[in-house]
């Protein structure tokens, strides 16, 4: 007799600041680890932010503090894997807070699964894409990166996740060396000739591909149920590097 698919809560959060959502992720990680909550998929878009991963350095931030302030772009040192990336309007961001062993997977298989789920969604939109290949994560099309992936494993529970460029303004990527990959282009669904999509519509259309890849069923819930949990987050970890702005960057 086959088992019923594991239920994962799914929330569309709308547009939300990076730090607020990071607080929410940390609170959910603690709950999932303690068995007090189901695994959860957060889908959203961020206000403009440069997110600095564990391998990021300020050499990869090309806009100085004054330019970031002028463009209203926050810079946040994060505890996810990877280098620097940009998040902003017109980009679908997904943060799966998952008990990986309960899903029968490990961290490397999980990252590849995220790639496959995004590739399947892009195929539904009529776009060909592929994994990055050796030493590269994310999803690529025509030699340019259309989706970035950066995750963290908290014992057995994942957080952080992916960012898929739908209609995001590409000029913001000019303020960084995206993912620390000098000379690599970044693209979007719109630039690839795909449909011009609203982020919420894309989030809900992506859901079935996540379900099929991870053998689960998404249970969509209201954001108002989960957002207050951010206030219960454990303290933000200290920055991995001190933030000093180099003149002329």
Task: Write a concise keyword list for the protein shown above.
249 residues; alpha/beta; BirA Bifunctional Protein, domain 2; 9-stranded mixed beta sheet; 3-stranded mixed beta sheet; 12 strands; 24% helix; globular; disordered C terminus
Quick synopsis:
The chain is an alpha/beta fold and 249 residues long. The protein has helices at residues 18-34, 65-70, 107-124, 199-214, 223-226, and strands spanning 6-16, 40-46, 49-52, 74-77, 84-87, 91-97, 130-131, 139-141, 144-154, 157-165, 185-186, 216-221. 24% of the residues lie in helices and 28% in strands.
Element layout with pairings:
Layout: E1 6-16, H1 18-34, E2 40-46, E3 49-52, H2 65-70, E4 74-77, E5 84-87, E6 91-97, H3 107-124, E7 130-131, E8 139-141, E9 144-154, E10 157-165, E11 185-186, H4 199-214, E12 216-221, H5 223-226
Parallel strand pairs: 1-2, 1-12, 3-4, 9-11
Antiparallel strand pairs: 2-6, 3-5, 6-10, 7-8, 8-9, 9-10
What does this protein look like?
- With 249 residues, this protein is α/β, with parallel strands linked by helices.
- It has a single domain, classed as BirA Bifunctional Protein, domain 2 (2-Layer Sandwich).
- The chain has helices spanning 18-34, 65-70, 107-124, 199-214, 223-226; strands at 6-16, 40-46, 49-52, 74-77, 84-87, 91-97, 130-131, 139-141, 144-154, 157-165, 185-186, 216-221.
- Strands 1, 2, 6, 7, 8, 9, 10, 11 and 12 form a nine-stranded mixed β-sheet that branches. A three-stranded mixed β-sheet has the order 4-3-5, with no helix packed on it.
- A hairpin with a 7-residue loop joins strand 7 and strand 8 (139-141).
- Mean pLDDT is 91; it is low at 241-249.
